[in-house]
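hiii, so i know i said id send this last week but things got crazy w the move. better late than never?? heres the sequnce for the chain we talked about at the cafe, plus the structure i predicted for it. fair warning i was half asleep when i ran it
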Amino acid sequence: MNKDYINRTTLLCLVVVISATFLTMIHQFLMAIFMAGLFSAMVSPLHHWLTAKLGGKENIASILMVVGIILLVLTPLAVIITLVITQAISVGQSVTPWVQGFIKEPTTLTALMEKVPYYEEILPYRDVIIQKAGELVGTISTFLIDSLSSFTKVTIDAIFSTIIMLYVMFYFLTMGDVLLQKILYFLPLDDSNEQKLLKRFTSVARATIKGTLIIGIMQGAICGVAFAIAGIHGPVFWGSLMAVLSIIPAFGTAIIWLPALIILALTGHFAGVAILAVLCGAVAGNLDNVLRPRLVGKDTEMHDLFVLFGTLGGISMFGLLGIILGPIVAALFITIWEIYGEAFKKYLPNVEVVLKKPQDLDPE
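okay and structure toks below
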């Protein structure tokens, strides 16, 4: 047997085994390292500009970038998260008596129910229905409060991961180009395919952050202000929740504000209905159509189905960070199949007709 073949096979096995062992050993830090690389790539142009202004002092520029991220991004985010948690607990504790009062008090809902067929037959069971509804709402409220009580551990993990991410970002900003060159060197692909994957990764990451996050923040802020003006309890909580849900195509913030609008209409608060319809429906609902083409760009857009399943699948796999990671994985999935199609083009058959139209079928 060829000695070179044995050496290369042994070396390849050692590379796979040792690399798998190392990655398994640091798997709890991989997400923080990945996010550090992602955000380093996003702020790299600003880091280069700052380095030039400081006379080529990369370390000082990196320190200033990390401090800037802490002051301008993480500190306001921590304040918002604290407000969201506080209002979420308050909403969870107040929703049960509110729903029970809404059901018991004579409102527009009662007038509408009286027009329902067989209402007279249902009327004797009204108290039982109210009791069961109250128990259901109480169970949901307890679940929300219990879920929020476990937030402490998640917060500690998030703080630790953030510290790791910022620490890694410092080194990625100063020597990221060298690391990227090494990675591309060891990746056994043509340079054109490597550049295509890299370009797709960076463009989709930039598009996701600029498009999804900025639009989500704007929609959540507008809807939160609308909820506050309409007098709905916990506007910061609901606004933050709508900012997250805005990533879902077609539905988005309407999952929250539309039921709220219906409840306001049933309780006779038509001023609040008008506020939600204008601010949440007309203004926030059209932000995606107006701003996304400018923020994202035509070359990085994906079909709504890929955005939807990429985002939801990313959230289920990576948690909240899946908002960013999901679309990136979906875009890389599309890109790698495009590269596959180009690399094996001569082995793949020509496809002219996929499905015949009814008029093309043989009448016999």
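btw The radius of gyration is 27 Å. thought thatd interest u
miss u guys!!
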